[in-house]
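Field log, afternoon session.

UNIT: design team B
ACTIVITY: writing a sequence onto a fixed backbone
BACKBONE:
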């Protein structure tokens, strides 16, 4: 008898990490485990869940869609669920973004944005305008192109040879300011690097890619809005596309539907994923302006965008996304986000002065504590201790090294969020 195939778990070490926990059911903010525990999912299952697990409205929409049309090739065909989604997204995305291209997840949404930017200039007979600028501490996914624009980290360390070169510029990481200044008195001098680069090389540069206002996996780093605004102005001035990777920040996480809304910025290309289906199914979308798309409107077949994935525009994922957006339309989602934001502010203020806490940060529904340790970074030894400590107390939090963040589904009740912070506070007092 052959032994069973063994699941290879992501971002896990099969020797050092504990065995995966078997989840049998999930409901609202809780994961129910096979051994009878109830765990609060305080990170929305890798930042995807919005309205709670097993949300009945989204579940029903998927079931209904499955009975009618589960999937159809999107090349040469379209379907109502995809058309409805394009219609519904229109209401929320910046007006100047007029086209959308479906893909499978955040990484592929980023790949599409990069390829569109590069091919745009290629189609206009400017093949030399193909370089990409990306930020320190950036994270854009794990496929080769997304990994190239992501900053060096333990995630990319083994794959240097597969990463294509990009220009790496400072991010506005105020707690560890790259130019040694203080946010209270600075004038966003960290942006001068990208300013100089664009002044020198704009003819070779196709796009600047940023995670707007919040760099996620790189350490939950919150940027001043002025940084994004200045990058936008520089891109416009130098005729370089701005790609906003809203894969994490989209769908209300920052308190607005998109982070770009908070800064009043319209990118040329925007990547969305994660929350788009409310956390039910994988889907990526890349939006772009009419100008970006115009270079593909051509009688030359080689000017077509030859890119697509088998499940592109999947009807079940579209139905889930439509149901998600209906919830935004008829439930008080932003009031829920506001309640979460207020609790973050209150509880972060209570721990800010602990000497173990280096900085607290917050953006909308995301609360962050950067802890003082001797080995900061993703591989900080503290991470594993905290992860186990939280789980033993029924809370799923996955610190990014010494950075603990709370990114709950909007369905979380105030007392559940307070419970999460009680456990974090206990950890600061006892583990650190
Ligand atoms: C900003 C950002 N971009 C892209 C990605 C990649 O998304 P996915 O994991 O769905 O490929 C992530 C994932 O965390 C992300 O945070």
């Amino acid at each position: 008898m052959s032994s069973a195939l063994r699941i290879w778990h992501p971002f896990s070490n099969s020797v050092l990490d504990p065995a995966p926990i078997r989840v049998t059911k999930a409901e609202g903010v809780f994961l129910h485990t096979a051994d009878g525990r109830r765990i609060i999912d305080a990170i929305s299952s890798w930042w995807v869940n919005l309205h709670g697990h097993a949300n009945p409205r989204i579940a029903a929409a998927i079931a209904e869609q499955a009975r009618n049309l589960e999937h159809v090739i999107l090349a040469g065909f379209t379907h109502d669920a995809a058309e409805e989604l394009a219609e519904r997204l229109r209401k929320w995305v910046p007006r100047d973004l007029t086209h959308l291209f479906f893909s499978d997840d955040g990484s592929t949404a980023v790949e599409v944005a990069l390829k569109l930017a590069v091919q745009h200039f290629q189609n206009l007979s400017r093949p030399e305008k193909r370089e990409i600028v990306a930020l320190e501490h950036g994270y854009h996914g794990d496929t080769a192109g997304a990994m190239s624009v992501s900053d060096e980290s333990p995630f990319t360390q083994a794959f240097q040879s597969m990463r294509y070169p990009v220009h790496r510029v400072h991010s506005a990481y105020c707690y560890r300011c790259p130019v040694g200044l203080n946010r209270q008195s600075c004038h966003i001098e960290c942006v001068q690097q990208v300013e100089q680069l664009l002044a020198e090389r704009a003819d070779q540069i196709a796009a600047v890619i940023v995670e707007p206002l919040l760099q996620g996996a790189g350490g939950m780093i919150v940027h001043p809005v002025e940084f994004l605004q200045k990058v936008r102005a520089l891109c416009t001035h130098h005729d370089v596309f701005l790609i906003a990777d809203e894969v994490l920040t989209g769908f209300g996480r920052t308190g607005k539907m998109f982070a770009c809304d908070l800064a009043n910025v319209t990118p040329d290309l925007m990547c969305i994923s994660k929350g788009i289906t409310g956390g039910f199914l994988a889907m990526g979308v890349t939006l772009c302006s009419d100008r970006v798309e115009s270079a593909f409107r051509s009688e030359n077949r080689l000017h077509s965008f030859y890119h697509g994935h088998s499940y592109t525009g999947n009807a079940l994922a579209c139905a889930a996304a439509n149901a998600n957006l209906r919830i935004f339309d008829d439930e008080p989602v932003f009031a829920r986000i506001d309640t979460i934001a207020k609790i973050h502010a209150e509880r972060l203020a209570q721990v800010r002065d602990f000497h173990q806490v280096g900085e607290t940060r917050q953006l909308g529904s995301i609360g962050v504590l950067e802890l003082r340790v001797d080995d900061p970074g993703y591989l900080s030894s503290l991470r594993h201790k905290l992860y186990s400590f939280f789980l033993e107390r029924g809370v799923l939090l996955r610190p990014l090294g010494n950075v603990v963040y709370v990114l709950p589904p909007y369905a979380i009740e105030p007392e559940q969020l307070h419970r999460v912070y009680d456990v974090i506070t206990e950890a600061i007092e006892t583990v650190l």
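LOG NOTE: The mean pLDDT is 98.
NEXT ACTIVITY: expression trials, pending approval
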